[in-house]
Every structure is written in C-alpha cells, then in structure tokens.
C-alpha cells in the first residue's frame, strides 16, 4: 500500500515536471519582447542591465522586477481568496438550517480554521504586497525595491507556506487543523480528544511560520525602500499617503510577525518535544493569548492601514479635490500604528485577567477610535462639495467608508468591557471584524484593481460588469454581516456548525442565518463576475489610447505612477506600438530619456497627490 | 526555450544571474527561487519528520531528515550563488556604492529590530514563570565558571571584532585579518562552551528539555541564542574567507559593518540573558 502511494507520488511528480517543462516552451506567455534596436540605446550604458528578461514561465520564476512580483502576489492572493471563499461558501450552506445536514461538524471546524488563516495570512497580507510592490517604487520614483531579490524570495516562500497550511485537507492520513485561526492553547497544544494532536496542526503551524518569514522580509524591504530609494524630489514632506500607510504597516509587521513566529515555534515544541511554554503548570494558556494578540491586534491594522491609504489615494481622484487634512490623515495613521501595540488584551476581557489591566486596555482601545474617526471625517470632507464621479473604484471606496463606519462603531462597543462580556464569542464579533476585513480590505482590493487596471493591462475593464460587481458585493456584505450583528445580539455563539439547541430563539436565528447565507452567495456571484470581467477585459478589452483614462490631468492629480504609464505608452508607440511592450514596461532608463524628449515636466508634480 | 538569447560569452552558458547590484533593469535571477525552494524544503522536511514521528507511514522514517538535509544543501547553494553574483564576483568593479551600503546597514538594523521580537517571546515566557513560585524545582548549577568564562569570551570577541573593523578602516590589513581570526576563534570556543554546558546538564545533571518549566525557558532561550551565535560565526567565516581573498578596504567594508552589527547584537542579547536567566534565576530564588 505504502509502496503504491510512493509510486503514485513519483508519477505525479514526473507529470508535474513534464507540465512545467511544457509551460516553459510556450513562447507567448506574456513573454518579454526586447525593444527593437534603436529604442534600447541607453541600456548598455548602465553597465548592469545588459541582459533581457527571459521568456515563458522562466521569466516568472526568475523575475526580480517589482512589477512582476506585484503581479505574482496579486495572482496568488486572488487564488487564495477564491479558495478561502469556497471554504466559507460550504460553511454558509451548512448554516442554512440548524442541524448538521451538509457536512460533519469536524469538517466545518477544519473549514472555519482554514478560512480564517487563508483570508488573513494568505490573502490579506499578499494582496497588499501586490499593490505596494507594483506601485510604491513607481510612486516614490525608485528604480525598484531596495532589495529586488529579497522581494522575490519573499514571494516564493508563500506558495509552499499555503500548501503546508492546507495540507490537512489533501494529504492522506492527515486531518485539517480544527483549532480556529487564533490557535488557543490548550486545544492547540493537542490536549483532549479529536484531531488536535494530529500532524495537520503541526503542518499548519510550520506553514504559518514560513509565511511570517516572508511577510517580515517584505516589511524590511518596504521600509528600506521608502527610506532610502525615494527620488530627490520626493521628500518626507510630500511623501504620498499610500507610502505612509505602507511604511506604518511594515513597521507593525516588523515587530508583530517575528513574535508570532517565536510563539508558533514554542507551540510546536510544546506539541512535539514536551516543553511547557503554554501548559497550565508552565507559561499557562493565557500566555499564548498574550503573545498571539500582541501579534494579532497589530495584524488587524496591518490589514487595515494600507486599504485606508488606498481610500485616501483614490477618493480625491474622483472627487475633484485634494485629500482633506492630508497631514492629519498621516498623523492618524501613525497614531493608529503606535496605539495598535497597546490594545491586545481587549481580546481577553473574559479570561479573568487583572481588572486593572483590563481597564487600561479598554481606555487605549477606545482611544484608537479617535484617529480612526479623523480618517472617516477627512474622507467625507474630501467628497464634500466635490465633483464626485461614481466610477467602480469610487463606488468601492465610498462603500468601504460606510462599511468602516459600521465595523468601527461596533468595535467601539466591543472595546467597552461590560458590553464585551455580553457579546464576546458571539456572531456580533464575527460581524464586526468582517465589516473590516471584507468591508474594508476586500472592498479596497477591488477598488485598487479597478483603479489601476489600465496600468496593469493597458486596457479598460467593462464598466457595467464592474458596477454589477459592486452592487452585488455591497448588498451581499450588508446582508451577511449585518445579519451576523443581529445574530450576536440573539446570543448565537461563534464557530458552531449547528444551532439546533434545545433552548433559545431558533426560528429568528435560522432566518438570520439564511439571510447571511444569501448575502454570502451574492458576494460570490459578484466575485465570479469580477473574475470574468478581469480575465476577459485583460485579453480582449479595448486598448486604451488615452494615457489618462480617469481624466486626472484636469484636476491636477496626474500622479507619478500614471506618468510612468504614459512614458511606457510613448515608448511603445515610438517602437511601432508593440502591444507586448506596452504591457511589459521595457527599459526604465530608456523611458527616462524619452520623458525629457517628450517634454513632460516630471518635476512639477511631487509625490504627494 | 523562451530564454532571450544570450550574446555574452559565458562559455556558452547562460549565467544563472548577472551582476545586478544595485538594481539593474530587465535582469533575472534564479537564486531567490532556488533559495526559497531550499528554505521551504526545510519546513517540508520538518513536516515529514513530525508526520512520521506521529505514526504516519505515508513516507519512510528517513524521509524527513533526508529532506531537511537536502534542503539545507539547496538553500546554501542558493545563498552561495546569490551572494557570489551580487557581492563577491565583481566586488571591486561593480560592488556596493555608498548609497547601497547605507541601505544594507539600515536593513540590518531593521532585521535586528525583528530579532528583538523573536527573542522577546521567549523572554516573556521566562518572566511569566519567574513571577510565579520560585524556584519551581531544583535548579542545575547555573552560575558556574564555565558561564562566566564564556561570557568573557563573547564580550572579548566583540572587542576584537570592533578593533578588526577599526584596523580595516585605518588601512591596517594585518591587524584586520588577525583580529577577525581571533573573533572567529573566540566565537567557536563560545559555541564549544555552550555545547559542553548542554552536555554537562543533560548527561551529568539530568537536566533536559522536558525537565519542567525552567528547562523550557533555559533550553529555549539558550538554544535560540546558540543558533544565532552559530549563524554569526558562519557570517564571520564568510567575511574572513572573503578578506583572505583580498576583498574589503578602508572604503569598501559594508558586510564587515553589517556582520559586526549582528555580532554585537547577539553579544548584547547574551549579556541580558546571563543577567536575567542565569543570575536572575539564582538570585532571590532561595529566599
């Protein structure tokens, strides 16, 4: 039996290698087409860039170009978003009725754990890295990231991390981890019956550690890039808002993820080598909660601040006004970054920790509402009296603001100890944080993808489909997560596969769960439309002749990444309009040359808009 | 194959990576991918090891250790190629300029920031148990002449490394090489001392990893620190070999600087560790 499986594994391996070899031979796989003779004159002068990018799959495996790596991150994140989304669709289908009808409760627990970890670690951080990789160097006028190769290795650690995390589902003999994304001890140490002591949990912990290493490398790279690689006219005074949020986020990653990494290793040692880090007689399960949430709460802002930066970046473009109170948006970002390390114990109000500690954490948690509100008011004021254009990215940005208001205010309630004691571990909490992670991070992912679609592809997406996508997502989000808030008020506990309890208001709970499931399916339909729109427009959408598809020039907000986009189009046209060159970028040094030739005055625009 | 044709003469081979420091454009490199495959392989090997120890017969017992060893090899090959092409091969012609040097030193500083968090989790565990009933069990003889000698050695190695660097900056190559060698020897002796201490504790005192709540803190923290010293010694070794081949000068010494920063940091962690974990466990404990 074991031999047969080894043979099968080997066969699969050979097959995979064959497929990979085949893929490398597909020539037009977004291959790099070298610029024709006259265009690449400056390339030899630099002395370094004398090699072209290779073609085919090899190009993607060996690339160190920040834009390519951004594309890789984006593809990866959308794939994981799809997988995490499918997991939750099964869960929502199961919750249509009170009893366990569709899947076993153990399967539900496994899906629940993997959904959380997939969305936070495998989708959230990577999708932000996708945007920041592609655009931060362009916006701050850098040639590339400070460390292009560390950028590449940081990405390539992610796919094996994902496979380890999901290994419990597809490796024979393993069960998926059922410990929840918070991995609370003593359950995660392997105490008790069930599969918690199985190797599926260990593999997930290893995979998480690997993705944490990747995120930390990325953070070091971004901080170094923003500090040292800015163009001369890009100073701290006019640094743009997106770079500020990425800088703050990377600072949070720098201290949060390594601590999680050590805690994960300690958990692995506890599980496999008999240490006592999180044992009751040792460091105690509460120590795990402290360490986990010291990472976990900054993680919330790691996932929130860059999308907030995207709102601050996109909103003014379609309001015809500059961002209101720019400085205060930056200050609020920094304030949230600092405060986020002082609020972790508000996740632990019900654990019986010292009431004096609880009180201080409640105060800081409430205080963090202030910089958050500063952001919201500045966004609203930006739109006030503006010439608002309801394009798809703008719709998603406005939708995000409304989601953030609901998600934020429910958070203020949860930060208050007396309210939290009632609502802790109910669906209210689930609704609250999904309004942030789906309602802000998810929405701004879509906003960013639409806003920069012309830069990614040189084409335009289908506007009608994009609006369908928005309205389905927005209505679906409200149905799903507002229903969850109400479920929380009814006392529906989190993490349960069934709600066929002998007591309690089963009928309204059932109805609300059905509403939530309906909303989830609306979101799913919207996402399918989005993927179709994206793929179809990428290959067949109308090629943009206009370098300014959003009419940013007339409001004076034609920013650096669009200038770069313009230069690239000019390069392509000068070269005979080779479409592939238009998508691929060509030689940076060459474009700089053309800019001066083309009379574009780069120095007039700073990097702050 | 889709690789763009290679007009340069590399003996008919396409170099896996070109000299691309600082950032060229349109370059490509296999090394990040190779290193990532090796690095991830170590995790996969660990996963296989845990699976087979847990009774899974999906793969043979040897698979885990074999994958780990193979992956470490692949990882080192990747790093070797990476460093060689980026920094070593064209050290004098295409090496790091002042800007790149500043960026690298800054990145090392950021990395040391992450190390604070990495060590932080272990220390927090220790503070958690130290705040409880103490001593939790009979402690092994922690503060011994061995620890004091080892501490002195490590502090001395920081001093020798610093003056090696100063020697380099003043153009005194002999002193640089000599003191760098001395640092390396001191580091190696320190690691030897740590191994000896483990040996004493495990074999003679019967104090092992599973020996209660202090053992977790002791072996966790000293083990983590030992790994760091070992990595530091490897880095010092690389610098030493490169300097034997004539690299580095008063103006070009970036990796000497970054490795020094790392070594001094590990030294500081050790002093903190001796104070709180060795001395701190004994003092006030008996009362």
Descriptive labels:
heterodimer, A: 609 residues, mainly alpha, Cytochrome C Oxidase, Chain A, B: 287 residues, Four Helix Bundle (Hemerythrin (Met), subunit A), 2 domains, globular
Describe the structure.
- The complex is a heterodimer of chains A (609) and B (287).
- Chain A starts with a helix and ends in an 11-residue tail after the last helix.
- Chain A has a domain at 63-283: Cytochrome C Oxidase, Chain A, CATH 1.20.210.10.
- Chain A has 21 helices and no strands.
- Chain A is globular.
- The model of chain A is unreliable at 31-51 and 575-606 (pLDDT under 50).
- Chain A is an all-alpha fold.
- In chain A, helix 9 (285-314) packs parallel to helix 15 (427-451).
- The termini of chain B are far apart.
- In chain B, helix 7 packs antiparallel against helix 8.
- Classes of the chains: A mainly alpha (609), B mainly alpha (287).
- Chains A and B meet through helix 1, helix 2, helix 5, helix 6 and helix 7 of A and helix 1, helix 4 and helix 7 of B.
């Amino acid at each position: 039996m074991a031999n047969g499986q080894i043979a099968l594994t080997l066969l699969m391996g050979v097959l995979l290698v064959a497929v990979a070899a085949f893929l490398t031979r597909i020539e037009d796989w977004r291959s790099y087409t070298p610029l024709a003779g006259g265009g690449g004159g400056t390339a030899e002068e630099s002395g370094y860039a004398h090699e072209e990018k290779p073609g085919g799959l090899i190009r993607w495996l060996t690339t160190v170009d920040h834009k390519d790596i951004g594309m890789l991150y984006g593809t990866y994140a959308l794939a994981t978003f799809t997988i995490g989304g499918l997991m939750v669709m099964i869960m929502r289908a199961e919750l249509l009725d009170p009893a366990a009808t569709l899947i076993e409760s153990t399967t539900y627990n496994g899906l629940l754990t993997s959904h959380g970890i997939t969305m936070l670690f495998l989708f959230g951080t990577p999708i932000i890295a996708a945007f920041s990789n592609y655009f931060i160097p362009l916006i701050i006028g850098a040639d590339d990231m400070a460390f292009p190769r560390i950028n590449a290795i940081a990405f390539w650690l992610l796919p094996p991390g994902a496979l380890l995390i999901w290994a419990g589902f597809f490796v024979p003999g393993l069960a998926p981890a059922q410990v929840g994304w918070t991995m609370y001890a003593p359950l995660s140490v392997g105490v008790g019956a069930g599969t918690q002591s199985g190797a599926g949990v260990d593999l997930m912990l290893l995979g998480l550690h690997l993705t944490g290493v990747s995120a930390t490398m990325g953070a070091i790279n971004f901080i170094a890039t923003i500090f040292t690689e800015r163009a001369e006219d890009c100073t701290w005074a006019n640094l743009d808002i997106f770079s500020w949020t990425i800088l703050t986020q990377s600072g949070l990653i720098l201290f949060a993820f390594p601590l999680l990494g050590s805690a994960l290793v300690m958990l692995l040692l506890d599980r496999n080598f008999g240490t006592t880090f999180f044992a009751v007689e040792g460091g105690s399960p509460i120590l795990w909660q402290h360490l986990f949430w010291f990472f976990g709460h900054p993680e919330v802002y790691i996932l929130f601040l860059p999308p907030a930066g995207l709102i601050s970046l996109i909103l003014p473009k379609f309001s015809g006004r500059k961002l209101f109170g720019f400085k205060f948006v930056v200050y609020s970002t920094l304030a949230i970054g600092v405060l986020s390390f002082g609020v972790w114990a508000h996740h632990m109000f019900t654990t019986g920790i010292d009431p004096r500690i609880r009180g201080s954490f409640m105060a800081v948690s409430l205080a963090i509402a202030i910089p958050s509100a500063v952001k919201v008011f500045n966004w609203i004021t930006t739109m006030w009296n503006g010439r608002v254009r309801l394009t798809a990215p703008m719709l998603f940005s406005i939708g995000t603001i409304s989601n953030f208001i609901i998600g934020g205010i429910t958070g203020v309630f949860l930060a208050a100890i007396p309210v939290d004691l009632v609502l802790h571990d109910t669906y209210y909490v689930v609704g609250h944080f999904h309004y942030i992670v789906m309602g802000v991070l998810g929405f701004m992912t879509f906003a960013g993808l639409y806003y920069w679609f012309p830069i990614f592809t040189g084409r335009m997406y289908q506007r009608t489909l994009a609006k369908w996508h928005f309205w389905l997502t927005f209505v679906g989000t409200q149905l799903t997560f507002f229903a969850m808030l109400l479920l929380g008020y009814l006392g529906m506990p989190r993490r349960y596969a069934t709600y066929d309890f002998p007591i309690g208001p089963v009928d309204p709970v059932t109805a609300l769960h059905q509403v939530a499931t309906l909303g989830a399916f609306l979101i799913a339909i919207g996402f399918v439309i989005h993927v179709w729109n994206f793929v179809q427009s990428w290959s067949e959408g109308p090629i943009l002749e206009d370098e300014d598809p959003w009419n940013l020039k007339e409001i004076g907000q034609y920013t650096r990444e669009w200038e770069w986009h313009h230069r690239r189009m000019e390069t392509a046209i000068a070269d005979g309009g080779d479409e592939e060159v238009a998508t691929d970028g060509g030689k940076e040094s060459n474009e700089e040359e053309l800019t001066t030739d083309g009379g574009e005055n780069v120095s007039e625009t700073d990097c702050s808009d | 194959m889709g690789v763009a044709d290679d007009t340069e003469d590399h003996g008919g081979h396409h170099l896996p990576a070109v000299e691309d420091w600082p950032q060229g454009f349109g370059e490509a490199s296999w090394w990040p991918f190779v290193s990532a495959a090796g690095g991830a392989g170590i995790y996969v090997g660990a996963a296989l090891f845990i699976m087979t120890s847990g009774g899974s017969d999906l793969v043979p017992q040897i698979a885990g250790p074999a994958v780990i060893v193979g992956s470490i090899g692949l990882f080192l090959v990747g790093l070797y190629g990476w460093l060689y092409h980026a920094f070593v091969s064209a050290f004098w012609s295409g090496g790091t300029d002042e800007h790149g040097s500043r960026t690298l030193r800054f990145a090392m500083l950021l990395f040391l920031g992450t190390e604070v968090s990495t060590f932080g989790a272990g220390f927090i565990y220790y503070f958690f148990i130290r705040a409880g009933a103490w001593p939790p069990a009979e402690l092994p003889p922690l503060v011994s002449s061995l620890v004091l000698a080892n501490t002195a050695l490590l502090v001395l190695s920081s001093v020798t490394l610093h003056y090696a660097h100063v020697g380099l900056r003043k153009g005194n190559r002999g002193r640089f090489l000599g003191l760098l060698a001395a640092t390396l020897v001191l580091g190696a002796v320190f690691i030897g001392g740590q191994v000896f201490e483990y040996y004493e504790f495990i074999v003679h005192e019967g104090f092992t990893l599973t020996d209660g709540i202090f053992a977790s803190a002791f072996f966790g923290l000293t083990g983590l620190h030992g790994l760091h010293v070992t990595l530091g010694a490897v880095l010092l070794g690389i610098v030493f070999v490169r300097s034997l081949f004539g690299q580095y000068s008063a103006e070009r010494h970036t990796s000497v600087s970054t490795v020094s920063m790392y070594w001094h940091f590990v030294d500081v962690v050790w002093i903190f560790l001796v104070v709180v974990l060795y001395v701190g466990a004994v003092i006030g404990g008996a009362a």
